[in-house]
Design brief:
Order of helices and strands: HEHEEHHE
Strand content: 25-35%
CATH architecture: 2-Layer Sandwich
Number of helices: 4
CATH class: Alpha Beta
Largest sheet: 4 strands, antiparallel
Shape: flat
Number of strands: 4
């Protein structure tokens, strides 16, 4: 009987250790939304012109995706004193998750047509923006939410 009690106590201790180990292995964070940061260097004398584009066309695109539920928020940040060649603007877009990037090309084209009127107009607008800004890079991150 004493051996049975000892075995039961040992089994209970092992179960307790396993449960404790599982609790310690739990992550202290969970996946959150996806942030995309585009670094933009406006060309000399074109800052206000590019800001007008952001306030009209770019904002309309973001609002359309926000209405669809894919974009949670978006922001424009101004680098106060960028060093030579560094971006003076950072465009930040918060997406619901990575799945929002799995839209078909037809869906992407529909958004461009809605915003610009046609795909050729969208392509021309993209080329025209090169005269007022240079894209310096893009960073996509996933927010990790601490529990």
């Amino acid at each position: 009987m004493k051996a049975l009690v000892t075995m039961a106590a040992a089994a209970a201790a092992m179960v307790g250790a396993c449960v404790s180990g599982l609790a310690q292995d739990a992550r202290p964070y969970d996946q959150g939304p996806v942030w995309d940061f585009s670094m933009v260097l406006t060309k000399p004398g074109h800052f206000d012109e590019y800001m007008k584009f952001l306030d009209t066309t770019w904002k309309a695109e973001e609002e359309a995706m926000k209405a669809k539920g894919d974009v949670l928020d978006y922001k424009v940040f101004n680098a106060v004193d960028p060093r030579d060649g560094e971006p003076d603007l950072v465009l930040a877009v918060e997406y619901k998750n990575m799945a929002v990037f799995d839209n078909s090309l037809d869906e992407q084209d529909a958004l461009m047509k809605k915003t610009f009127g046609s795909m050729p107009a969208a392509n021309k607008a993209d080329v025209d923006r090169e005269s007022i800004r240079t894209l310096k890079g893009d960073v996509m991150t996933r927010e990790l939410i601490l529990k």
